[in-house]
Design goal:
Length: 115
């Protein structure tokens, strides 16, 4: 299910509206089957963004109720959950000898970070 979803997302970056609705239907189906809400989004290398959401706004064990379903305008806090992914990606680049572990971040990311 998720492999075909990933292929749809890659194709959807061209943004044919029919494809967008097919992708939304797949997300709605996953949300219905899992009874969980989620937001999916990405930004390509040219800065084009794409986002969709599905499922309930109210978390399963929440004492509060949030009406409606998630959509592309909702935001979720990711917090520290991305640190492990970032560290893994950096270490893979080190293993591939594309960067050095002690390189300053501004060399690879944003020169304004050098301040």
């Amino acid at each position: 299910m998720f492999k075909s979803l990933a292929l749809l997302v890659i194709s959807a970056m061209g943004m044919d509206e029919t494809l967008r609705w097919k992708l939304q239907a797949e997300l709605d189906l996953i949300a219905k089957e899992t009874k969980k809400g989620f937001i999916f989004g990405l930004i390509d290398s040219e800065g084009n963004d794409f986002a969709l959401g599905a499922g309930p706004r109210t978390p399963i064990d929440s004492k509060s109720y949030f009406p409606g379903t998630l959509d592309h305008t909702d935001m979720m806090n990711v917090g520290s959950g991305t640190k492990a992914y970032t560290a893994t990606a950096v270490m893979q680049l080190v293993d591939q000898q594309k960067i050095k572990l002690l390189d300053p971040a501004h060399v690879h990311i944003d020169p304004s970070m050098s301040r």
